[in-house]
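Notes from the pairing session

We agreed to fold both candidates in a single pass and log them together. This is the raw record for the first candidate, unedited. Please don't reformat it; downstream parsing expects exactly this layout.

Candidate A
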Amino acid sequence: MKTDLLYGIVASSKTRVRCIFCGVHIPKAKKCIEQHTNGSKHKENISLMTQEGIKEDNGVLHCRICSMELMENESLIEHVDFHSSYVDALFDYKEDDFINSDLYLAYESDYISCEVCNISFDFSFDNIQNHVEQVDHETNVIERLKPQNGMFRVDNDYEVWCKLCNTYVENTVREIRDHTYDEIHQLWFTDLLDLIDEQDVSLDDYLANEHEMHAFCNKCQIQIPCNKAKLEEHVYSDSHLEQFS
């Protein structure tokens, strides 16, 4: 991230300059410019640019999400508010469909990528929507969700079994996704993840292996029955706590 004194400061008149990130005019005096560029709000706006897919080039701000240059009298914050719904949509695509646009928004790649299909393509919301509606993509999403959520195939292939909830779920993207957001399913994760937070205990094998009944403590190098009572007993035990001293 650039931090030069004049980064984002452009001429406005004989007596004033303009900060294109904050959308404000500043007296041309070096002291005034320095005071502004050292301010927390100015620095926050520069950090915000990467998250929002905005880049400065020769005094002009360009937004990759909207494929447009910001108007001269438009501040960074104003534009961020304007395109917030698009940013929310990209977040949802990442969470629900494993569409990663991070490198594209950071101007480190000309493409976005699908993590489950292992392909890259040109950025546009039409391209994203067309991709996520493909049957192959939906199949890949299902296969990615299952081991992350303790779900396993059964003989009939029409259903999957959720190990955490001990229930059967229709083997479709919609039903599997709905189940992963189900209150009871989420409660299992919330209870255990809160308990093992920063304890170096892994649930990965338990979730990915239908017949595995244990979590694994990397600190103590032992298996623990994967239920709240046993995990709580372990993480608060003297032998475990001594590993952190």
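Candidate B (folded immediately after A)
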Amino acid sequence: MTMERDNVTQRILIVQAHSYLNGMLQRGQQWLRAAGFEVDLAKLADGASTSFGQDAYSLLILGSTCHDGPGFRLLKRLREDRNDVPVIIASSRSESDEKVSMFNAGADDYFVLPCDADELVARCRT
């Protein structure tokens, strides 16, 4: 069973911007697939813009460890290019200034890793 909205399968791209988050984001990929989403994984934020532009994704989950790293730069580049795909930031950082920086750059949601499967799936369904 695949997750559909308006008869269109929801495709999610998870971008790993830092090796520190790899294991957590790979678990997230497994959880989302089990919930019926089509999920692709890109290892580097700077290399992800190529795969992101070639495929139609309904959501981008961007692993990020700081507001000036490659994940942040990808988010800014997407918004500067007027790409309005929803972006959820998955970060190990819980500081308010980090969250505010990401929201100001165009993030639609932000959650702190680790998280559980139910929370991740619920965020992707909305």
